[in-house]
Amino acid sequence: MKRQRLAVLGATGSIGVSTLDVVARHAERYEVMALTGNSRVEVLLDQCLQHRPRYAVLGQEQSVAALTERLRSAGLATEVLAGPAALERVAALPEVDTVMAAIVGAAGLQPTLAAVRQGKRILLANKEALVMAGALFMAEVRAHKAVLLPIDSEHNAVFQSLPADYVGNPARAGISHILLTASGGPFRTTPLERLQTVTPDEACAHPNWAMGRKISVDSATMMNKGLEVIEARWLFDVTPEQIEVVIHPQSVIHSLVQYIDGSVLAELGNPDMRTPIAHALAWPERIAAGVAPLDLPAIAQLSFERPDFTRFPCLALAFRALRAGGNASTVLNAANEVAVAAFLDRRLPFLAIARIIGDTLDALPVADMSDLPAILAEDARARAVAEDLVSCWQ
Ligand code: NAD
Ligand code: MG
């Protein structure tokens, strides 16, 4: 069998590490051509020693010589590069078939688009790319016949619950709704007044999933679900009215599709990202992921609640941005990245995250964005507004 040749963007992060764990179980199927990491040079070095890629990409030029030297002394010819242009280069390499897009935030957009434009198979974890630039991203996917497979567990579950030939148009497929499940995060039942003083470490202590710090804070504010609502709109061609969020604290049902005849199809499993990663890596085949089988009697109970938009204003802000259209989701994403980074730096209290995002949306008029330069300009403008608001925060 010809091996699938992979580039893993964001290899040193939570999704990247899980991806390489699945890949290592199936050396006969996958060959790693490129690995990228931003600042964790030691982790990238160890990954290179294990997977022997042709290219490794770092965030900063100053570490290139040292990593190259250590790879050479281990007998590896891996070429070490740095910076955004190198990310785009390895994402677009002719010798790469499949790109795992697992950089966090807006930094993932352009490398992922570079892979899309080469018509590659894209395993999309980087939801912010779709939130920032959904219309353009999907148009490029269609124009270049890229194969887009969702890694986000909810979207992967929806993908698995849709008809195999689904290419958009939910009405024609008899779909009534997409139900995105949400755990509710670490603060689902925390007294509201306590939320004033929660710390970054408390916000990052997710009850079910171990993830990077940005998405962990997004889960605590439920902006993560908001971003996923926007992601679902683009991936599955549904309207905001066709997307419903359901709180499901056990994270066993990863999401569901409701059909007009009353049938509801879902994907269930243990909360372990290696399942959607293995699904997308092997699709349409199946491979082992190293995930323990689901033990329903041990779980005993699955429960559901409606989301509380007062406790989680970020979820309402995401629906507002999606309905507004134009630049609003780009602004939402940029303001969220700035506010979350400020919270993680202890420059902003937890409850101010939603305020900064809401105020940034209020400050910038809704406008159409025609192309990538317009999207990047809007992203930069929203970041500047949000940074100003953070610096004025008392
Ligand atoms: P993480 O913080 O653990 O890893 C992020 C990766 O991106 C690292 O490899 C880092 O080096 C790289 N990176 C960060 N900034 C960069 C920059 N400016 N330039 C180049 N590389 C950069 O994050 P994660 O939890 O692995 O999440 C990655 C993406 O997957 C996010 O978009 C997240 O929303 C999505 N996602 C994650 C999970 C999960 O379980 N972790 C689940 C669903 C979706
Ligand atoms: Mg998710």
Q: Would you kindly provide a written description of the structure presented here, covering whatever features stand out?
A:
There is one protein chain. The chain has 394 residues and is an alpha/beta fold. Among the domains are: 4-150, NAD(P)-binding Rossmann-like Domain (Rossmann fold, 3-Layer(aba) Sandwich); 325-394, Rna Polymerase Sigma Factor, Chain: A, CATH 1.10.1740.10. Helix content is 45%, strand content 15%. It is built from 16 helices and eleven strands. It has helices at 14-24, 41-51, 64-73, 84-91, 109-117, 127-143, 153-161, 200-203, 213-221, 223-236, 274-282, 296-299, 313-324, 328-344, 352-363, 372-392; strands spanning 4-9, 30-36, 55-58, 79-82, 98-101, 121-124, 147-150, 175-182, 243-247, 253-259, 264-268. The strands form two sheets. The chain has a seven-stranded parallel beta sheet, with helices on both faces. A four-stranded mixed beta sheet has the order 9-8-10-11, with helices on one face. β10 (253-259) and β11 (264-268) form a beta hairpin. α14 (328-344) crosses α16 (372-392). It is globular, with a radius of gyration of 20 Å. The N and C termini lie far apart (61 Å). The model has no long low-confidence stretch (mean pLDDT 97).
Short description:
With 394 residues, this protein is of the alpha/beta class.
Question: What attributes characterize this protein structure?
Answer:
single chain; 394 residues; alpha/beta; Rossmann fold; Rna Polymerase Sigma Factor, Chain: A; 7-stranded parallel sheet; 4-stranded mixed sheet; globular; binds nicotinamide-adenine-dinucleotide; binds magnesium ion
